[in-house]
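Reminder to self: tokens first, then the designed residues, so the page reads top to bottom the way the pipeline ran.
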């Protein structure tokens, strides 16, 4: 059978699921930007792209050169096409306006341009996460876009995906009818469908959490992880393995591929912040993908996709992956 490229997949989605042409274009543009980021990431020290800048982002994190470069690549790629009403990113305090000389479109694009920044300088996998929303008409999408236009629950996403820059560059995508995986063919420069209909195993014996924060966790998470560590002799009656890449993209990719449960709980280090990960451009797109692959995703108390956002950069506790384990740790929060 001939190979199905991302372009062909999107055209076929238009025929089978009425995917609008401007959404199709949007995904192609994001994919093109991810190819450019992949290229920059792969240059490493030869391209002078490693290391930090002198700036901090709105989260108070020092920006790496590749955080800034990836953000610029995504902005430039998406400004001129007429498919967007605005953009927002981990690396920008406020909503980004489409420059006046270009037409505006119906969609909003939110992204984490480079996820796993601490992995860049040590040559470990990083990625790009993105979420697509419709611009609500109420906000008058033709004028300047304010933060409030973006503050829609994750259930409103029309598409979400991530690119992972690892041994292979892959693009994982959902348009709300399953999850597809594409691998970058570097010789042809196109993403090729290699993983059709991705499904997460319902049960698992693998978990992912940054154990060094154990003393800061809330009681239900302490209890759950103690039970995982107790293995066969403990209440869960089986041995669990642990992995932590420290790039959500890479941890989620492993879980999509072979199952697992990923946790970044709220902790007592910064009591006013519910966790480390950001709702709009990390938790929501990943939750959409995970649910579309048959998994589950909560903040311990409720489904992440149902949360009504109150600010662009708000944080959220995250428990996602194989359904059985996500339901167990969520139940412990209710106990
Ligand atoms: P980013 O590089 O976009 O700021 O995100 C990093 C996030 C996430 O990818 C990862 O799961 C988590 O930070 C790792 O946190 P620790 O360093 O606390 O392990
Ligand atoms: Mn991130
Ligand atoms: Mn980032």
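Designed residues (335 positions):
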């Amino acid at each position: 059978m001939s190979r199905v490229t991302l372009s062909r997949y999107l055209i076929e989605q238009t025929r089978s699921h009425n995917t609008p042409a401007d959404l199709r274009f949007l995904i192609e543009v994001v994919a093109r930007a991810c190819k450019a980021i992949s290229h920059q990431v792969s240059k490493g020290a030869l391209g002078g792209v490693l290391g930090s800048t002198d700036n901090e982002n709105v989260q108070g994190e020092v920006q790496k050169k590749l955080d800034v470069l990836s953000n610029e690549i995504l902005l430039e790629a998406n400004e001129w096409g007429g498919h967007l009403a605005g953009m927002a990113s981990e690396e920008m305090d406020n909503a980004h306006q489409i420059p006046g000389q270009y037409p505006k479109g119906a969609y909003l694009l939110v992204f984490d341009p480079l996820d796993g920044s601490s992995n860049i300088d040590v040559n470990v996998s990083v990625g790009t996460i993105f979420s697509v929303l419709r611009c609500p008409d109420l906000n008058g999408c033709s004028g300047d876009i304010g933060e409030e236009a973006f503050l829609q629950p994750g259930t409103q996403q029309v598409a979400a995906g991530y690119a992972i820059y690892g041994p292979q560059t892959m693009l994982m995508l959902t348009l709300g009818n399953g999850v597809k995986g594409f691998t970058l063919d570097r010789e042809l420069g196109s993403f090729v469908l290699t993983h059709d209909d991705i499904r997460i195993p319902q049960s698992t014996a693998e978990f992912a959490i940054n154990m060094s924060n154990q003393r800061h966790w809330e009681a239900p998470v302490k209890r759950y992880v103690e039970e995982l560590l107790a293995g066969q002799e403990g209440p869960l009656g089986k041995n669990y393995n642990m992995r932590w890449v420290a790039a959500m993209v890479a941890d989620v990719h492993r879980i999509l591929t072979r199952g697992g449960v990923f946790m970044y709980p709220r902790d007592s280090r910064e009591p006013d912040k519910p966790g480390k990960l950001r709702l709009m451009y990390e938790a929501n797109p990943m939750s959409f993908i995970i649910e579309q692959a048959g998994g589950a995703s909560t903040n311990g108390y409720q489904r992440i996709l149902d949360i009504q956002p109150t600010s662009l950069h708000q944080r959220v506790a995250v428990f996602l992956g194989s359904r059985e384990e996500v339901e167990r740790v969520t139940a412990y929060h209710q106990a």
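The pocket of manganese (II) ion (ligand 3) is lined by residues 67, 90, 112, 114-115, 117 (CB under 6 Å).
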